[in-house]
Amino acid sequence: MTSGPTTATASPWFVRPPSPEATARLFCFPFSGSGASAFSAWPAALDDVEVCPVQFPGRENRLAHPHYGTYDNLAADLTEALSPLLERPYAFFGHCAGALPAYETVLRLTALGLPAPECLFVSGQPAPHDASRDRMLTMTEDELRAEVEAFIRGRGIEPRPDMVELGLMVLLRDHAAAGAYRRQEPAPLPCPVVVLHWRDDPDVSLDDLQGWLAYADSVEFRVLDGGHHDFMDAPDELLKTLTRRW
């Protein structure tokens, strides 16, 4: 693996080069069908923690890059991009299905003897061994198209047909990866896990998240006000939760 400032600067995995002045970093994993822009409303730093949205291939400014295919592939490729950036404290935040490759990346990093994160924050996502229960994995293409339209409208934008079709293409590829993901038994992590539940989430209940208890010695649950996608607006309650361990 290569290392050094030039690796971080050239990496397509980050929408902005991680700062060499940062004292700590928070790497943010987007949900299925989305990209690093899911964190565009977040500040560039939370106190002294630099916010580093991760850009998966096959979307947004990486639309021409081949899709990662599986979470194993995603974790392997991302581990190489992350390795030069782990020389200072860091944490992972993954929302919805983004929590699953975040989890797999922690496992891969520690298997390689690289530093583990200070914490894994998982938001609105059941534990890996329960991931196959996601209702969206059973939806038809037309139903998923309607979900894309509803999501775009929910962000205050009138969906154009080309916008919907592009979003659907990304979502279908991401859902194929999510549908292929299987972890029958928990593989414990070497770091604390903080599980975030959104009080008004219609699809994921607090009971649905209890499976995370088997994934670390320290697992904490936090209930936040808002719905499933309200993390995108960087509510104060969320940002305080993300920085209070630092």
Query: Biggest sheet, strands in spatial order?
Result: 2-3-1-4-5-6-7
- Number of beta-strand segments: 7
> C-alpha Rg, in Å?
17 Å
Shape category: globular
Strand content: 5-15%
Q: Indicate the structural class.
A: alpha/beta
Low-pLDDT runs of 5+ residues are 1-8
Contiguous helical run count: 6
How much helix is in the residues? Answer: 25-40%
Summed over residues and divided by their number, the pLDDT gives a mean of 93
Query: N-to-C SSE series?
Result: HEEEHEHEHHEEH
Task: Measure the end-to-end span.
Answer: 28 Å
The largest β sheet comes out as: 7 strands, mixed
Structure description:
- The chain is of the alpha/beta class and 246 residues long.
- Helix content is 30%, strand content 14%.
- The chain has helices at residues 5-10, 71-82, 99-111, 141-154, 161-180, 236-243; strands at residues 24-29, 45-46, 49-53, 90-95, 120-123, 193-198, 219-224.
- Strands 2-3-1-4-5-6-7 form a seven-stranded mixed sheet.
- Helix 2 crosses helix 3 and helix 4 crosses helix 5 (161-180).
- The chain starts with a helix and ends with a helix.
- 35% of the residues are buried.
Task: List the main descriptive attributes of the protein structure presented here.
246 residues; 6 helices; 7 strands; globular
Concise overview:
With 246 residues, the chain is an alpha/beta fold. It contains six helices and seven strands.
